[in-house]
């Protein structure tokens, strides 16, 4: 038997993204890498997504600054949410990610913003940026996401 949330959505089965609101999406993803990192989704629609992260000690590298892999993860997650919202019912995967680190994070939280800039039948091109809570740009990226089939059979 699979555990279901309040909306009847099982954590163990693929679902259609449009079935969930932001709270349900976070609950569904809490047992995945998303939950381990601590991402918090603040906005998602068919063209964009926004998430944030409260920086914790396990997010830091040995120099005591936010690890670049955490920033990469946030960008990929945020772009992925935008892609999934644009293509409900489809499996959408990252096929290319180009990332530029611009500044080290300072403060207790960072925000990631993703926007779709181009779509074809099978792919989406998405841009993203990471900022600190004061709006200082820490990283920017572009990514390509590819639809590889239906999410639910």
Give an overview of the whole structure.
The chain has helices spanning 22-29, 33-37, 68-86, and strands at 40-44, 48-54, 90-101, 109-119, 123-132, 137-150. It has 153 residues and is an alpha+beta fold. It has a single domain, classed as Thiol Ester Dehydrase, Chain A. The chain has a 6-stranded antiparallel beta sheet. It starts with 21 loop residues before the first helix and ends with a strand. It is an enzyme of class 3 (hydrolase). Keywords: Hydrolase. This is PaaI family thioesterase. Belongs to the thioesterase PaaI family. Pfam families: 4HBT (PF03061).
What is the count of β-strands?
A: 6
- Report the portion of residues in β strands: 35-45%
Largest sheet: 6 strands, antiparallel
Given the C-alpha coordinates, what overall shape results? globular
Can you give the helix content as a percent range? 10-25%
CATH architecture: Roll
The CATH homologous superfamily: Hotdog Thioesterase
How many individual helices?
3
| CATH fold label | Thiol Ester Dehydrase, Chain A
* Average pLDDT reading: 86
The span between the termini is 19 Å
**Helix/strand class:** alpha+beta
